Amino acid sequence: MKYSAARILWEGLTGHKGWKPVWRDPAPRPHYDIVIIGGGGHGLATAHYLAKVYGQRKIAVLEKGWIGGGNVGRNTTIIRSNYLLDGNEPFYEFSLKLWEGLEQDLNYNAMVSQRGIMNLIHSDAQRDAFRRRGNAMILNGADAELLTTEQVRNEAPFLNFENARFPIKGALMQRRGGTVRHDAVAWGFARSADSHGVDIIQNCEVTGFKIENGRVKGVETSRGFIGAGKVGVAVAGNSSKVMAMAGMRLPIESHVLQAFVSEGLKPIIPGVITFGAGHFYVSQSDKGGLVFGGDIDGYNSYAQRGNSPVVEDVAEGGMALMPIIGRARLLRMWGGIMDMSMDGSPFIDRTHIEGLYFNGGWSYGGFKATPASGHAFAHLLATDTPHDTAKAYRLDRFQSGAMIDEKGAGAQPNLH
Ligand SMILES: Cc1cc2nc3c(=O)[nH]c(=O)nc-3n(C[C@H](O)[C@H](O)[C@H](O)COP(=O)(O)OP(=O)(O)OC[C@H]3O[C@@H](n4cnc5c(N)ncnc54)[C@H](O)[C@@H]3O)c2cc1C
Description:
Layout: H1 5-13, E1 31-37, H2 41-52, E2 59-62, E3 78-79, H3 89-106, E4 117-120, H4 124-139, E5 145-147, H5 149-155, E6 171-174, E7 178-179, H6 182-195, E8 199-201, E9 206-212, E10 215-221, E11 224-233, H7 239-244, E12 252-264, E13 272-274, E14 281-284, E15 289-300, H8 308-321, E16 330-341, E17 347-350, E18 356-360, H9 370-383, H10 397-400
Parallel strand pairs: 1-2, 1-11, 2-8, 4-13, 11-18
Antiparallel strand pairs: 3-7, 4-6, 5-6, 9-10, 10-11, 12-15, 12-16, 13-14, 14-15, 17-18
Helix pairs in contact: 2-6, 2-9, 3-9
Bound molecules: flavin-adenine dinucleotide (FAD).
Flavin-adenine dinucleotide (FAD) binds next to helix 2, strand 12 and strand 16.
């Protein structure tokens, strides 16, 4: 069923009886050409592009819980392509371009809103670093502007410009960055994949792999064995656990990242604002809630809830940047499990097991990557060659020394 204004009008006039479920609920078949493990944004996007762009058939997405229950429905919805390094910037810019056409591609309203992202500058050295990053973005076909303090003041007069420790000295602005309604991304990709014949199987946990003579033959699941020609793993925070079932140890740690939403307020925040002197970022949802977050919790965990030291840290960051936030009441908060890689950059690669492919290590930044990650993973699964924009996302880069460490922070996940 195609969604359109005419359809809404017709359904309105005929009692809304014609709407169909957005995806089917099929029983698993005994064998698929390609099985994707993980019904998050990346797994569903992979299935969509595999079927729609790469013409693959007999595909299943296996999800242990429900579609949108993982990080894709838990993030702070920010999209951007403001990276510095060659390994990253072309990939994230490819993703931003896909976001720009996504709603037409999926025929689904994902509320893609390019309201701009401002990374605040608090010192002269930081201005130099952001100027360099902005130039790298422009060289890769992205947009970037360096704003003066006065320009920032015009955009967001409520910020604490006179803070003695962290005065605001300008910002790196990407106007094409912004926000997207996160769960609608999961639903839109799921609906499109389903309409191209992909079986989306919920409540189906993968519990093991069948590997014979170095080749994957299928997966053991809570709903029985499912045979597969190829298996793509896209389980985000559970990457280490799932790949351990195939005998692999990854350069990834799992940590909790929390998000916070205030009560609904009148429009105040024009786009996304990130604090350059602490870990704090904030935007405002269309319902009026201030949506904000900060650092990961300081210990490894698979629990989808966080702890109070980070709540305090985020509140301190918010108060230092925009004291008006102290007047807003917190409505909700939650956590998601982050697959933090050792250089802060992801993996989209084959493994040493034939037919087994891995997508993960998305750290804080995997939501904005969703379309490009799905596209590049589909390319890899369909053609056995890496997509042009994802060639650097190799599993062996720590052996070869080709890390993609945006901040030069080293192997410490919370610093990326
Ligand atoms: C609080 C928070 C804020 C964030 N903010 C941003 C942001 O503003 N911008 C940004 O770009 N990124 C952000 N991120 C990161 C982003 O959300 C993730 O990197 C991205 O969503 C991960 O990919 P995914 O959508 O495929 O993950 P998920 O939605 O987590 O999908 C993985 C799926 O795999 C399933 N699974 C796991 N194990 C198994 C198994 N054994 N069998 C079957 N299924 C299994 C899980 O149930 C899950 O549904 C944020 C994350 C969090 C938690």
